[in-house]
Amino acid sequence: MRHPIIVTLSAAVIALSACEQSSEEQVQEALADINVIDETNLNDVMLTVADADEAVRYFANANANDPGRIDLQRGLAQSLIRAGRPTEGIAAWQTVVANEESDNNDLVELAGAYVRTNQWDDAAATLNTIPPTFETFNRYRLEAMVADSRQQWSKADSFYETAVGLTTRPASVYNNWGFSKLTRGEYADAERLFIDALRFDSNLFTAKNNLVLARGAQRNYALPVIPMTQIERAQLLHTMALTAIKQNDITIGKSLLVDAIDTHPQFFEEATRALEALENNVVN
């Protein structure tokens, strides 16, 4: 008569054991999920906030400990580029592209790494492997730069125009496009594009400097009406002066150098040296 009780107790023990095992598994799974979330957050921090060299060390160690994970491979490649180590970055992006989980964005990043090291043919070959239906800002920005390197001006203009339409922050693209026009000698178009760049980012000093170059190339030696600090004004006057001197407008160039020196709130060494050299040449 006691056997049913024994059976019931045995079943209860088995059930309890199963519950304990299930609970332990659930705990381990939850901890694993937390670890993944923590690691993902740390990866994001390393890619955006951390010192670039520190990020390289972090992702290099992570890859060594867990090889084959494409997120860690991408993190290392991105960190190397951010750390100003594009040659190593190329090798890292090649590893990413060789991973079976890679996608077209990875090919674009590899092409960008080639561009950073002036390997234009490799960049073009990489971009040519990407389907034309894959249309992104970065892809067309790089296509424009490659076309520029080959002096394929019509293609470059088309790609720049497409890239501008694919981003809400086109200042750098307008600046690159303007510089392309500047190298072609199309100074008025270049000036217009640099103004467009500053319309989207009034703090982009390279666009301000390029704008002065474009105006100076047209012998327009008046500074443009754009936002600028006192130091920037002095630097732009210096650029304008050198442009004038290069075009043999010596008197104007000398006057602009004097203005640059007087405008700068500190000692303006570069402008002072240029003025002294100019005066010595005039005396000699």
Task: Give a quick precis of the structure.
InterPro entries: TPR-like_helical_dom_sf. With 284 residues, the protein is mainly alpha-helical.
Distance between the termini: 127 Å
Low-confidence stretches: 1-21, 30-37
**What is the N-to-C order of secondary-structure elements (H for helix, E for strand)?**
HHHHHHHHHHHHHH
Return the structural class.
mainly alpha
Q: Categorize the overall geometry.
A: elongated
Mean pLDDT, to the nearest integer, reads 88
What is the tally of helical segments?
14
Strand content: under 5%
Q: What is the radius of gyration computed over CA atoms, rounded to a whole number of angstroms?
A: 30 Å
| Portion of residues within helices | over 70%
Please give the largest β-sheet: none
Question: How many β-strand runs?
Answer: 0
InterPro entries: TPR-like_helical_dom_sf
Protein name: Flp pilus assembly protein TadD, contains TPR repeats
